[in-house]
Every structure is written in structure tokens, then in C-alpha cells.
Amino acid sequence: MKSELKGRFLLEADRRPFWSDRGLALMAFVIPFVILTAAYAALQTFPFGGRHILTVDLFHQYAPFYNLLREKILDGSSFFYTGAIGLGTNFYALFAYYLASPLNLLLLLFSPAYLTEAVFLISLIKVGLMGFAFYHYLRVSFRRRGALAVAFSSFYALSGFVLAYSWNVMWLDTLILLPVVLLAMIRLIRDGKWILYPVSVALLLLTNYYTGFFAAVFTALYFPILLLRYTRDRMPAKRALAAGKTILLSLAGAALSAFLLYPAYRALAITSAAGDQFPKAVEMGGRPLAYLGQLFPFLQPTVRSGLPNLYAGLPLLILIPVYFLSSRIRIREKSLNGLLLIFLIVSFDNNVLNFLWHGMHYPNQLPYRYSFAAIFLLLTIAYDGLRSVREFRATEIGLLGFSLVFVIPVVAALEPDLKLSPWTQWGAMTLMLAYTLLFSNFKNRRYKNRTQVNILLAFMIFEILLSTFSGIYYMDQNEYYGSRDGYSAGSLISSVRDAASQLKESLGEGTGYRMEITPHKTSNDPALYGLTGISIFSSTSPKAPVRFMRDLGFQTNGINSYQYRGATLFSEALFGIRYIISREKPAFVEKERRVVLGNDLITAYENPYVFPAAFLADPGLLNYKGAGNQVFENQNALAKALFGRTDLLFHTVRQDRAEGLTGSSTVYSFSGSAAGTRRMTLTYAIEDSGPFYLYLDMRSHDLEKIEVRTSERTFKLDGGKKRIHELGGLLAGTELQLEVELSEGASESGSFEARLARLDTGVLESLSKESQAA
Hints:
This protein is an alpha+beta fold. Strands 7, 9, 10, 12, 15 and 17 form a six-stranded antiparallel sheet that branches. It has a five-stranded antiparallel sheet with strand order 8-11-16-13-14, with no helix packed on it. Strands 1-4-6-5 form a four-stranded mixed sheet.
């Protein structure tokens, strides 16, 4: 009976195949590549329109780092350090975390203006390679050739995890290499062929060690199952030998990657992520129905927060039960796979296991980053169960399928957190009904095997197409794909690059001066546009500089990012920021910086007080320590520590009147009805002329707007993050008003912090001359 089933199932034993192995492998690459391309094309992605696929951190981090990598390769500069971002950055660690994929060499084929298209092509190729690799894994693992393996590989390449995190391009290499590692392990255990295994393990860890860690943990957990499956029970010595070889070669693969991983590990030890505390209590979510619901198609992908992305095709809901009920598959194998699947589900549900899976770290958004391992296991089990469909009568398959049709709305009703719309439920129910009819007909001898395969394959590809379009649509709605013009392409960006090139040429080599762009486009504008600046947003950024820059009034996220936003003429001068390229006319009156370049699109300003890259400082600098939000006092203290002088750079200005507020001269409280908007006003009398700065910490209140008004002009401030805002030159006798308007959804009472200060340019000029003399 078993041999008959094995020989007659679908396409596996067709003696005259209509598709060759190479053709099927090519289809496994082409189908996800084309489907994802079509989904992006429907959203008008270039060259099908004027948009790009950059969103979330791909927009702010990865694409700028790609440009930085491209420049480093072309100019041959050091891979151990870069001064282009931050206060100087360990590029080796940044490369290990973000840029180690060999496919990044394709960047060399694109000019900076086509950076978004380079990312687009690399993403598509990686998704295609996922399907190609998973197809070969199924081919090697089960020693079967069939067209349906192409559908399963496409489900893997366009799973819910991939659609949610396709913008996390450096993670995608792990999903390519995980099937390669496991097929190499199978060849090692079953066939004694060992060369591919340590090489694939090394590549898995090198291309992205972060998700490579998840894959390595899953591989270790899956290893006993493969060992028992591909070795004989009555030959314990050979089984032990195969186990020993696998363990030793795993260590060899890890050792091959140590040249990159060990320095990266040391660099990560000084980041904020290194300080997470082990959970104090065990917590269980207890939501098995929610995880079942995540297997449904057409869900909104989980990106910021929510349930794990587990979707990998609706046939799983039929084939997983078939696998565990099959008499063909050994009980031991079903038990081990079932235990591993349960462990993965419990890991989603248990806070301690979830913490351990994430490398002793609480992830900042992007939850359940290892859910691709569960998808891999589910698809493998389902593909193995595919052969067992003929064991069951049509009524049995029909009863299972019709039950699942009604399970879908029940789960949707019981789990409100599932992102299911009415059309999603009806679509999933319709597809489930179609699969039920198809699978229940496999024992019907009126149909030829090839016909059944083609119909089922068509339905599976149709589902993949619909789910991909749905997932990309939701990604655009929730995270947004922007316009390529103004990011790395367009006349404005050409002007920025031309201005930067001219300014660099005028400075000459080795001067150590920096330049920045305002207003910002990303959190890594210097990397994106080929400048040397201070802005940085990187997971490999040490925590100490972030705190230092926060205390000086720069905008930070408190973890791994600080921006040029929040600079003063003094902090600009101190960090060697000589030029500012402005994409917009400043709202304030610019009286200190000099215009050195400009056209209708951009203006380049020079800070006349800039300090040299290196100068002699007072020994008191070693004792400097910032004091929280007292940003102007901190800059005064830093200037004193640098030069040993007592002259005050910044002079604080106290408010004259406060309307709708109570409190001290810096921290103000409000209270009142939560209905409607609330306006609060601080009024300052300017007694001395000079450049003025305002530090704001709105403490996360919902804001309608923040405006600064004088008799000459009014302009808005972005108060979303605490930092210093430049107000420009103000004349003595001016009355300045700061108006804060809370939105309707703001809390009924609260407080915020506002500090106004004037910079003494005479003191700053004196310090600049002293630094030049030193």
C-alpha cells in the first residue's frame, strides 16, 4: 500500500516529465521574483512609476549605508573606520550588521541617483533566491521531483514574514541560506558529503549574524530530527559518527566566520542593547487561536507590534493535519516534528523563551523576528504530508476542509486583535473551499495526475499572487512607499551633490571639516549624500556618544541615534561642521553664517567660528560631565572644560508672562478640560541682540502646533522630539512669543520644559581664535 501510494502520487513518478529539474528550479526563482515585481509595479514603483520601495529603516538606515558601502569600495578607503557618520564610526561592525551580503556588490552597477533601484533589484533577487533555495532543499530532503514543490517554495519566498520584513533587506539572506544549510546537513548525514555544510554555516553567520543566530538555533533544534530520519536505527555507531561530524563541522563553520563576528560582538557590547535584564517573571499569552489565525491569507503584516507573521499558504491548514494523521509517516518522526512545532509556538507565547530567542534582548518593535523558522518547519511538514493525501477518502478530506471553512470566521470573532477585514475572511473561506474540493478529488481516477497537479498549482500560485498584492498594499498603507524624486534622484539632490563636491574641493584633502544638510531627509543624510557629518542612526552605535549628544541638546532616540538637529553655532564649531547645505530657506533670520554657494534649490552656509579638527584642550576636559536637560549649562560647562575660561557662552532668558501655565522658569504645568484644543503662551522680552536658541521637551504630549512669533515673522517648530531649536538673530527690544497648542486627544493635565538662551558671539569668536592658535 505504501509503495503504491508513493509511486502514484501526483507528478513524483511520472516517467515522462513535462518539466525538467532545471526548469522547475528556474520557476522556483522566477515566480516569486515576477509576482513581487508585479505587486510593486501596481503601486507605481520606478520604473513603472515615480515611487520607491524604501520604508521604515530601509529608508533611514540601510539605503544610506548601501551608498556608504559603494563609496568605500570605489575609493578603496578603510573598512575599519568611517568619519562620514556620527563622531566617527566603527565601519567594520556596521558592515557586519548591515552590509555583508555578497549581493551588495550589485550596487557598483548603479550610480548614486539610482540607489533606490539598486535596492529594488537586490530585494527581488533575494526573494527569488529564497524560492530557488527552498525548492532544492525539498528536492534533496525528500528525493522527489514535482511541480508542487515550486508552489511550496514560492509560499516560502513570499510568506507573511517576507512581506512584513522585505524592507529589512539584510535579513533576507538568512532565509536564502537556511534551506542551503539544512540540505547540506542532510547530504552530510545521509550521503557523507561534507564540504558544503561548513561553508554554508559560515555564510549564514557572515551575511547577517543577527538573523543568522535565529537560523542557527533552529538548525540545532532540527538536527536531531534529521539525524534520526536519515540514519538507520540498527547502526548506532554510524549515527554517532554522523552526529560527531555534524557538530565538529558546525563549529568549523562558526570558526570560519569569527574574523567578522568576534569584532562585531565586541562592538555590540558597548551599545544600549547590551544592558537588557532577564525577565523577572514568566508570562504566558495563552492565545493559540491567534497563532492559528496568523496562518490565514490577506492579513495586514505585523511590523511595529502585533502577532507573529506565520502565513505561508492556506493548504497548510489541510496538509498539517494530514501529516499527523498519516499512517505512512513514522510515529517517532511525527512526534519530534510536533514537539518542535509546539516549542516554537510556545516561544511566541512565553516571554522568557521570546527573550532568549532574541539573543537576550527585548526587540524595539518588529516582534517575533524568528517566526520564519516556524514557517520553514510548517512548509516542510506540509510538503511531507502532501504524499499522504491519497490515504484519506474524499469524505474525510471534505469533512476536514469544510470544518476549516467555518473555523475561519470563528477565529476572527474570538480574536479581535487579528487584522482581518470582512473581505479577508470571505476570501480565505472561498480559497479553503476550493482547496477542499481539489484535495478531496485526488483519489478520483477520472482525472490524470498531471491535470490535478496543474489545477492545484494554478490555485496555489493564484493565492500567492493575491496574498502578495494584499501584503504590499497594506505595507504601503501603513508604512508608505515614497517618491524617488527628492531621495537619491532629482534636480534638488543633484544640486546637493554638486554643492558638496564643490565645497569638498575648496577645502582640500585631510582638513577634517564636516558638512550637514537641513532639513533632514533621513537619519543618515551624510551617508546618503556622500558627506562627512555627525548624524547617525545605527544599531551598532555605542550608547555613550548618544548620551553625550543628548546632554548638548541634539535630537537623539536615547538608544542608538543622534542627529544634527539641535545644533548651535558653538556645537557646530566644536564638531567641525563648517558648511550647512539647506534645501529650504530658513524660517528664521540668519545673521551669523555666510552664504558661500546657492541656486534656486539649495543654499550652502559657512560657520565662521568653526574649530579645527584637532586643538589643544585644557586638562579640565577630563572632568566634564553633562547634567540631563540643562543643555545650555552643559555647553557652557563644556566650553569651560575645553579652554579653562569662565566666560559664559549662553545666557538664559526668563519668560515675562505665562498664559494658561503655572510653574518655574523652565518647567511649566497645565490643566483643564480635555475637550477641544488648548493654547498656552510664553512671552519673552529680548534685552540683548544676538542668535537665540529654544530648548523644548514636550514630554510626548499630543500637539496640534508650536509657533514662535515676533513682530517680524511667525514660524512653526517641530516639537515631537526634545532638542534645541534655532531661532536666528533677534534684536534687543523684540518681544518673542512661544505658543503651544495641544490637540483634542492630549491629556487633560501635564507639563513641558522650555528654555530660551542667547549665544554670546563675542565669546564664541574668542574661543574659535584660541582653538586656531592652539
